[in-house]
Amino acid sequence: MVKDSNIFDIDTPALLIDLDGVEKNLDTMQKKADASSALLRPHIKAHKIPELARTQVRLGAVGITASKVSEAEVMADAGIKVFALDKGAHGKEMLKGFGIVLNKKAVLERLSEEHGVMLLDSNEQLEIGETVRIIPNHACTVINLSDKAYGIRRGKVEAELLIAGRGKVQ
C-alpha cells in the first residue's frame, strides 16, 4: 500500500489504526502515570507492533510487558526493554459482552478471530453490506488476524505496521 493512499483503496479485510486516536490515548496514559508518579509499563498484547511500543517508550514508558516469551523476544529484538510476563486479572468482567458497538445499540455476545455474534436492540436494524464499527475488549481476536496494520490519519494511509508478535504461540 502506498503512503497517502485513500483508506478505501485498501483490500479488505484490513486492520486500520487511527494514529491520532492512538497517539492521544498513549499520551493520556503516560500523563496519568506521570501525574501519579507511577512507572508505566504497558502491555503490548493490544498491538504486538514494535513501532507502537517504541512510541510508548519515547513518551515515557519504562518498558513494555508481554504475555509470552516469544512476544517478549520480538520486542527485545526491536531494542525495547521487556518486563516480567504478565498473567492478567482474569475473571473480572469490565464490559457487558466482548466489546463496544459504536454505531448500533447492540451487545457483542461472542467473538473469535473469524466470527462474532451481536444482539441488536429491538429498535435497531442492520442492512446487508452495512458497516458495523466495533471496539473489541480483547485485542487478540483482532490482532491475530493480520500480519500488518495500516496507520491512518484523516482518511489517508500514513504507515504500514508489521504485527511482529502475531502468532507467536511457542
Task: Walk me through the structure.
This protein has helices at residues 19-35, 50-59, 69-77, 140-143; strands spanning 16-18, 64-65, 82-83, 99-101, 106-111, 116-120, 134-136, 148-153, 156-162. With 170 residues, the chain is α/β, with parallel strands linked by helices. The radius of gyration is 17 Å and the shape is globular.
What is the topology?
Elements: E1 16-18, H1 19-35, H2 50-59, E2 64-65, H3 69-77, E3 82-83, E4 99-101, E5 106-111, E6 116-120, E7 134-136, H4 140-143, E8 148-153, E9 156-162
Parallel strand pairs: 1-8, 2-3
Antiparallel strand pairs: 4-7, 5-6, 8-9
- The strand count comes to 9
Low-confidence segments = 86-95
Supply the helix-strand structural class. alpha/beta
Estimated helix fraction:
10-25%
* Main beta sheet strand tally, sense and closure: 3 strands, mixed
List the helices and strands in order.
Answer: EHHEHEEEEEHEE
| Overall average residue pLDDT | 80
Q: How would the global form be characterised?
A: globular
Approximately how much beta-strand content do the residues carry? Answer: 15-25%
